[in-house]
């Protein structure tokens, strides 16, 4: 397939100076990508070959579900985005431009607007559905700080699919098929992953799952239970805290009383001053909505408020309101005696707890001996905080495990969010006009490449899974200047090609050590080493990249082993 003397190929010993994570450094050092500008990369022949194999797996799995491939434009007119309401909502991440006639366009970060317009034009009846369309397309996102190479780039390749159904049952069916499809894709890559419930973010909709590849340097975090099937995105995770007897079994707590706490406005200082653990302090935080209504949220002092959960609970966008509540004695605010016009929402972790401390709603004073069921009545209880190490599974008694990972896929039940706004209507079987029900399913093609390297690497370089390795075997001629070695290596190369095996032939006139290091760096699964003794003994040495096992075999046995290796052959 490839002789390296004829290949556009280069590797590097030194790591790039701006490499944040091992996967990015290896992508550059192995010659897979070249940086053009911040967040913009060229895929070199070796990297493009891997990318093509990833796309092939994705197409095979998508096609098996009955989805149909299309290709939509990267350049999108602003009027469609204005119609959906996202032109302003998307913010500065959206690349915006004008044509020579001063008409506004954007470079698509996603394609809900285009595809919904296609549905508006082409879907007229319930008989036209269910339908699932997908594309593999370049996307653009003006990241505020591109980093991690192609993991967080400004230009990237993505497979996005969009389903159209007349009812929720058909949406559920396609959603489940996409869930299985994405699981199959990742399993064919041999990766450790979790599919977790997630926030819908700017895409919108009512339900979604993220597919997270485990990687210790990942920018996402997941929570999972080792005892059952529960797993979730860190921001959306449910949990139970381990009950502390000292907080739950106190009887006949005395009435709360006021204590002087001059100049003490933070949890840590208050904990020290009162000789109370932080979990026995109520933290009062104020949020506001777009109409500047103020809400108070109560959480235990050792936990952090999760605004994503709060927004989902209230069904509205919220942000911190410190600037608007200066009259509420920030640092000394608490639930007992708070302005009655402010609705109080309390985290479940506070339920039934007594002997607590909180602000007294006047400067320099706090209250102690607060009973959370006696001394204030919240408008509602809910889960408003992030999980912590030591919390337990919501379904069983096991302690939750926290792992870092990389999101490579996200599937959504969009419902009618876009179809209602963009008039994608259909005539149902009952003769009524209704909005099309939609789903959205994205998986990062170039992101998969980066995530694979991030999970599967060692001190020597990349360890590709067989399904996407650029070549299965690398012929290494120990001394290409030796005519017998060269002749033997050429012959073996021809035999492997005729056997239909993807082969790279390192016929460069460089030291054997350089060839070995480059092969390990690039991650070719099998080295076939042709030494100076081959003309006499007709044996070659095979070495497996994954585990370093070596074996000396005659040529026919070696070729048979290589041909069978993808199906599970081993020494």
Notes on the protein architecture:
- With 571 residues, the chain is of the alpha+beta class.
- The chain folds into three domains: 18-204 and 417-454, BirA Bifunctional Protein, domain 2; 245-382, YbaK/aminoacyl-tRNA synthetase-associated domain (YbaK protein), CATH 3.90.960; 471-567, Rossmann fold, CATH 3.40.50.
- It has 15 helices and 32 strands.
- A hairpin with a 5-residue loop joins β23 and β24 (433-435).
- It is globular.
- The two termini are 25 Å apart.
- Residues 244-250 have low confidence and may be disordered.
Task: Describe how the helices and strands are arranged.
Blueprint (H helix, E strand, L loop, with lengths): L1 E2 L18 H8 L3 E5 L2 E4 L1 H20 L3 E2 L5 E3 H7 L1 H4 L5 E4 L5 E4 L4 H11 L8 E10 L14 E11 L2 H21 L4 E5 L9 E8 L5 E5 L6 E3 L11 H4 L8 E4 L6 H8 L7 E7 L5 E7 L6 H8 L4 E2 L22 E5 L8 E4 L5 E6 L9 E3 L18 E15 L1 H5 L3 E3 L5 E3 L1 E8 H11 L1 E2 L2 E2 L10 E5 L5 H16 L4 E4 L5 H11 L3 E5 L3 H4 L1 E6 L5 E5 H10 L7
Parallel strand pairs: 1-29, 4-8, 16-18, 18-21, 28-29, 28-30
Antiparallel strand pairs: 2-3, 5-7, 6-7, 8-9, 9-25, 10-11, 11-22, 12-13, 12-22, 14-20, 15-16, 15-17, 19-20, 22-25, 23-24, 26-27, 30-31, 31-32
